[in-house]
Amino acid sequence: MKALVYYGPGKKKWEDKPQPTILKATDAIIRITKTTICGTDLHILKGDVADVTEGRILGHEGVGIVEETGEAVTNFKKGDRVLISCITSCARCVYCKKGMYSHCVNGGWILGHLIDGTQAEFVRIPYADSSLYPIPAGSDEDALVMLSDILPTGFECGVLNGKVQPGSTVAIVGAGPIGLAALLTAQFYSPSAIIMIDSNENRLSIALQFGATHTINYEQENSVQKIMELTGNTGVDTAIEAVGVPASFALCQSIIAPGGTIANIGVHGKSVELHLEQLWSRNITITTRLVDTVTTPLLLKTVNSKKVDAKKLITHYFSLNDIISAYDTFEKATSTKALKIILNSDL
Amino acid sequence: MKALVYYGPGKKKWEDKPQPTILKATDAIIRITKTTICGTDLHILKGDVADVTEGRILGHEGVGIVEETGEAVTNFKKGDRVLISCITSCARCVYCKKGMYSHCVNGGWILGHLIDGTQAEFVRIPYADSSLYPIPAGSDEDALVMLSDILPTGFECGVLNGKVQPGSTVAIVGAGPIGLAALLTAQFYSPSAIIMIDSNENRLSIALQFGATHTINYEQENSVQKIMELTGNTGVDTAIEAVGVPASFALCQSIIAPGGTIANIGVHGKSVELHLEQLWSRNITITTRLVDTVTTPLLLKTVNSKKVDAKKLITHYFSLNDIISAYDTFEKATSTKALKIILNSDL
Amino acid sequence: MKALVYYGPGKKKWEDKPQPTILKATDAIIRITKTTICGTDLHILKGDVADVTEGRILGHEGVGIVEETGEAVTNFKKGDRVLISCITSCARCVYCKKGMYSHCVNGGWILGHLIDGTQAEFVRIPYADSSLYPIPAGSDEDALVMLSDILPTGFECGVLNGKVQPGSTVAIVGAGPIGLAALLTAQFYSPSAIIMIDSNENRLSIALQFGATHTINYEQENSVQKIMELTGNTGVDTAIEAVGVPASFALCQSIIAPGGTIANIGVHGKSVELHLEQLWSRNITITTRLVDTVTTPLLLKTVNSKKVDAKKLITHYFSLNDIISAYDTFEKATSTKALKIILNSDL
Amino acid sequence: MKALVYYGPGKKKWEDKPQPTILKATDAIIRITKTTICGTDLHILKGDVADVTEGRILGHEGVGIVEETGEAVTNFKKGDRVLISCITSCARCVYCKKGMYSHCVNGGWILGHLIDGTQAEFVRIPYADSSLYPIPAGSDEDALVMLSDILPTGFECGVLNGKVQPGSTVAIVGAGPIGLAALLTAQFYSPSAIIMIDSNENRLSIALQFGATHTINYEQENSVQKIMELTGNTGVDTAIEAVGVPASFALCQSIIAPGGTIANIGVHGKSVELHLEQLWSRNITITTRLVDTVTTPLLLKTVNSKKVDAKKLITHYFSLNDIISAYDTFEKATSTKALKIILNSDL
Known about the structure:
homotetramer, alpha/beta, six-stranded parallel β-sheet, globular
């Protein structure tokens, strides 16, 4: 089969690889019909994720069709259409039992990381019964690709952890795909204001189309001052960090109202300064989270009942065979305006 | 009347002051029967709390007897025995309606800070109906002095924010009066382990008597290593910071289990380093809080039903007239082993 | 002034009454600008509410302008535009401190019940600081009349108690004004389906316009069978009872999914049969509640940010002087299709 | 092997049966070391549980040693000591993912009910990875037998559903083994009062030894009147129904405070009268639940850290070979004072 293989920093090839086979009774083999590229894949290609070894097939998102199942798999059979979760859950460890699939001692984020991933014609999914989701008949499968990772990430790490409520005020720092996923899913709870902060005018204009009530270009405006004006000088109830750098986390600390929550989504490469000398008395909550995909069943229902239009995040379509071009487009997001790209298999 | 008056850094006098009078219809005048000294009072005397002006009567804890009430006060009448909350709550602002009395726009922590306090023979309490609590007949009033500040602070900021649960593991960094108050109230929820960390052997030994399951002298042992041993190498579910310096907050970050909560109680004078490069993916919650005293009714019930022996925190008794000596004893806590001191009025 | 006065079952008069005056320091006198009629007022006029005595001015909803305040009132001053809550909250009793204003020992539902109400040119509001809400500039005051009672009732008793969630399924039994208020506010949480059940085709058609995903005319269809079809034979996650008769509560028991919640709003005049022999093992929750109006600040934000169009509930407008005709229209709701009626003062 | 086999109402035999074998890859065979008898077993023997067929081995509680595992089982291996949950959880269905193991579409309560159970020398456990729990070294295995069913039932259905809190008041109607299990686990949360109600003086006296603060013999005292006296005329915050008859559920309705919770544990054979005409406005919650055993890991920690002495429930010990005598003792609980009986295997 064809697959996108990592060969060290900056090097990837779309090449022939052996088709995966069942290794354990709990495995399933999935024929990929649609996959996509994540910002994390770009980090891997920069060499930032040290435990991805050369020869690894990348990708942790996608939908497909069950090709084969191990004998302990009972939820799925050959021919079933399935959504692949970016998080593999064994459903039997202490973390899975608590709903913290991200910390599964037998799984977690392993696809396209510690085992071969979904940017290929076939993929092996361990613990298939608890790591795949059946696709209801009549679903829009392009939309469902957004449920492998980006939508649950924005929702769980940003919206749920951030305790967005009817009538509350929300600021989202970073209008990239993840920030926009938080924006889309924050609207499940009818906050009175959602303020998007970025320096990319295209993304801010998309944010307005996606339901933001206000946008701030932090290079052109004083973000703190404007948010204080918009919130009657109290700050926001929820600040969602969707970038992963010290400056954006610092901004969140400056705009959070007493009693508010800073929900971190960003992947941080270094420590940040926490202003406890100001925040110790302000009744603040700060949360971090790696997506658990525990809300996938909920999100499936909201997508299929049209409470959220997940397809809005898709800007480009490519054939899976053209994945190298798709990476180019995704890497040059500023000029191509790419958010999420659907890669369709020709099989 | 006699009162303890602040005259700038390092200067205090027990001297005659005019007896307070009703200024607003919602005020009450309380004759103090018992009061105590808080670590915060020492901070004020060091000059650390800039908005305390010279001439201010200190103190924000105590019990007493209603002497006089403004005409809008309906919950209390002359002669009633009352507990004074360290937090004044107007009960009508946006924060009070949310239970965040600490941020009351008309009150909050003002006693012995922005208005005259309780280390005196009489004190004026604004918004008396919502800032005083009736003392049930037969209560031990020494114990109830612990409910003005220290017990709700340990409970709300440490135990409730820290989400202590049956069977969970708790570490408390700092075995001073506040850390010990967290230790006492954490036991309401039957955690399986409570580990106290300090360098003062006397306080660690008190912690064991108060119900700690393990103690660590951080000057003699490697705290992180020992906690990892005690927790099967996962860390604790709840880490309570009860000191207020960067090193103790750093320790909390090193010992928190995935999915755990760091509950800050300490008053911090400078910023700390937050290791988001490690914690971003660990599903951690960090909370800060100034005590709201919203749990005072609950704590009254637990004290009176003997679910917690709040008197354990009391090490010394003085006459209110000897408050200067009491401050000496409290300041030299290492040698005097003072935790909380009861000052009894002779009136 | 003019007022609508109750004179025993079936008897009411729009007549001259003395203008109310401040009786306590915490009172305010409000000049009514808009009020409305509640189904409860009809119950009173039938003689169903025994503790309403002859001579009582009816009405517990409305907006107005502060005319005078007692000296302990600090949140409001003459000339302020205010929303009147149907629930009077003293903010200082054990229930108010818990957010259960409905059970306020000094207030609760007293307006137009135990003290004179809002269907008059002026009304005295006890505990004005905690029973009135300031109206933000630019608000649509017709919409805000819906916040005195009907919107918080549908939201608190039905939607919040019923734990409506993104993607969940909801059935509302009864499409009268209260059921429709639950329908409007349920959408704050983006459930995947909201099924309205009634026998009045006009109200079912309004429900569809208001956002119901399905309607059932229980006289023409088998409600249980249809709901089971719509929910894949599991039942609904939330069943909201908005009628107050045994049959509608029975229906809720028949359609609730395992793990679901039956939230009762209806005012019941007799006991009902609870099928514990079936439900004991089904992990069901049943809730009852008299509206607390604790969510009024939240609802003000959602109305003013256009997350809910509360004006949709208004079908008729009358002058306050024509209140007798307005009652006629409201009583004959089946033919007049009345939901909520705005009564505008001519003052 | 030897097993206790049901042969229709009133008939049971301790006889030879074939040893169970692995049927599916997710199965394990457990050699029983300790088991016990449940009130439910008596119901089955009365013929009350229609779907138990003749030839069925009874029993759904116990601890044992893994004899053999299917090839998909990864958490356990031959020789491991394990706790058997009364609820079988597949960990992959919609209910298991929500923590509602009791409603598992592939499991739930099936042991000694729809498949052969634990009152035997060996038992087959389906979905072993998620239906067994490893026993920590040094555990008291007699105590752990209480964790198969009775302790999680009292805790989940009574205490957790009943929202017992520090300082709150609790009434438990029924002082049988289940009511006593609720009593033991309610103390995890330090309520200020726990009132036990029964007519059996022996059980009431045991309740006092187990930590009840008050007892009421409902045949000798007016339960409602006494509870109102004990609670300052407001009723209890939590009422736990642990009998399963209309009279005890009626009592719960009469003693519940506004804002309180009635948590049903009892297995009801007929419907009850629900006084909505009184309760509709009292902000009450009523819950039902079949034990999910989702708290087994928590309970293991509380037992092993000695926060609860589960062995207190054990009154008698028999050899498993003497199970017929043990049933006699258990059936005549009034005279034998039996609560829980440990049956030790001789293997």
